[in-house]
Amino acid sequence: MNTYSSELLLDVNNIVVTFEGADKPAIQDVSFQLHRDEVLGIVGETGAGKSVLARSLLNLLPEGGQVKGGDIQFRGRSITTMTKEEQRRMRGGDIALIGTNAKSLLDPVQTIGSQISRVLRAHRDVSRRDAWDQAVELLSNVGIVDPEKRAKAYPHQLSGGMAQRVVIAMAMITDPDVILADDATLGLDATVQLQVLDLLIGRCRSSGKAAILITHDLGIVAHYCDRVAIMRDGSIVEIKPVSDFLVGPEAPYSVGLLEAARSRPVPIVDKKKSGSKSSAVNLTKEAPLLQVKNLFKLFPISGTDQVVRAIDDFSFEIRRGETMALVGESGSGKTTVGQCLVRLLSLTSGSILFDGQDITAMKEGQFRDFRRRIQMVFQEPYVALNPRWCVADLIAEPLQLMPAMTRAEKLKKVHELLGLVQLPTSLAGAYPHELTAGEQKRIGIARALATNPDFVVFDEPTTALDIRVRSQIIDLVRDLQERMGLSALFITHDLNSVRSLSHYVSVMQHGKLVERGETENIFEYPKQDYTKMLLDAELPIEQKEFFVPKPQHVGDLT
Amino acid sequence: MVNFMREVLRRPSAVFGVSLLILQIVAIIFAPYLAPYSPVEADALRSLLPPSGEHWFGTDVSGMDVYSRVIYATRINLLISISAVAVAFVIGVPIGIVTGFYRGYLSSLVMRIFDFIQSFPVFVLGMALVSVMGQEIWNVAIVLAVLFMPIFARLIRAETLSLRDRPFVAAARCSGATDISLMFRHVLPNALSPAIVQVSISIGMAILLTAGLSFIGAGVRMPVAEWGLMVSSGAEQMILGVWWVALFPGLAIVISVMSFALLGDAIKELSDPTMRARR
Questions:
Q1: What is the pTM of this model?
Q2: Which of A51, A191, A279, A423 has the smallest count of CB within 10 Å of its CB?
Q3: Taking the domain B2-31+63-278, which CATH number applies?
């Protein structure tokens, strides 16, 4: 798709980056070229060296880092031989970096307008007033409503998505030739991510700029990039046009990565199968395991008589062996629902019937029996594990809900659970900070399963994980659903995983139910606009494949 | 623990602090062997002798050997300070946890009582309390414990307030942990490190306060060998050119306070999470 006839902007030749005290280089022999009018995606897992690579392009490595070998040329000039002043002018002026977590990148005591115009004035000779006007204009171009007023706002007054737009505006105001976006949309809602990336790449395309998108999301690459470079352990294992990559990755590592990013078919334990024990007729009439009726949760806003309606008349039911997904953007009240189910929050009104009994009215002592049966897997694995407890103690903790066990029995159970989540028993003595994100997530799952619960709330089980780890967790949960006949509520904004994990979907917005139905139905025939919007924001890697006949993946196209 | 000691030894100021502390521990344990004379035996004939081979630090107005008294006083001063801080820690930490964990009227009431204690200058309140209770060694220790307890309670409470809303506490609650277990097994281990730093700093402060109270006559009484008391008795003769009676116990106070301050700094640096990560 790219003919490379256009101007060569960046030419990176065999660069090696080392850090003081590290035994091997962070970047090993990386070479690539970037032409005008091109969007290059750099994909890799945590620790692959993506961010270090981006920083070395600006010669802005963190403390202790150094470009040891190779050469980086920007428009034919080697970056390392530039004077300090030339480097300063290049950074932000010719090559702009957009980082992750925009809120922390903005100066909290400066208005966003002045921050943006300051960037312009650092690179171009413009008056304060002109710079401000340009900043305001750019803010409106990046989709910020009421830019004159917003320019006078401080970063804490912005939402995450808006802050990210501001950072993008900051990078674009000097009209640089190359934009480096280092995980610029990490942690944003899919709908916001789509808007932000559409905007960024749209601007690049229309003005003939080049961009490098650093990400761990192959969906982003499939939708926005011309070429993709797969990084692992500081080297590029494969670099080729995206369309070629999606149909024929060469390196075994990239094959694995691509495979991991695909969604799985709908879970095998559907209601018919789990019902095979009892009669099918009986099943439909069987009382649901969990019945939530007219749930309300209002948070009063302190100092006023107004309330936040976190959950606003929400009802659903889940039968044995079924999994329902609760999807929606951040702030839609999904997690609040989960927390009400395990009674971490009390409801304002409504009822929750578990196995026919109302758990909302129970005293804590009475509810203790149900704690064993209703468990929750928490969102961020690291913060949900006590940093001072070792793995064995963490996993054994829920066993206090079971009949008393001896020390040896507990240890046996811990080993059994570690096996269940496919972790070696040697991890029993480890502490949370010694584990990888994937291992932490598994420990969280093992904890929830320790008491053989009937029902598990999974809160964002796949968020913020690397591609392969994410797919491993999805496979693990699928395996558990099948083996243990778990009923589950699956709270997420990762639609791709919903397809792989749940039978039913409820879409939630502002605490209200928007739409509910069987997973396939909702994905295929969404009725509500909001659902359509959510689905449109999804960036599956399969969509590009649509144009390439490949029969074995037709099932994934939905 | 081994790692911890290794980290300590890497810092010159910490090494200095630890060696001063060891010096004091040696003085406490081997006082009878190190001190040539009894610390409380007066001898009117040997009053105010300057330092010599016989009396290294000279003698005071009642003819007691200053060197022996300085050595023996280490026992009294450290005993008072360490036991006072230990009591303050043992009582203050649970109060801090409980008042941080349950934010109710009772919890506010306890904090207001602490406000009341802390609103007085420590020294003035200490003076008043000791004179009311009687100038005994243990009374000084009890008063110091009362004065230091709010410090620990507040520190732990502040940590608890931020820890109690952390997801791991919610997760433990879902795992059936009771409130007691949440407080003492989950929150406490994570809240403890600033309090442990404070222990060392507080011991230094307690030594200074003990000596200060005795100096103005509101602490222990003669003939107990106590540094502040010795400085005070020496101060009367200072004008006559008798410098040794006040100087040596004064130096002992400096050394003792400094050793705990340096140790506190070292612990503070080591308990910094970024430092821990580097290890």
A1: 0.79
A2: A279
A3: 1.10.3720.10
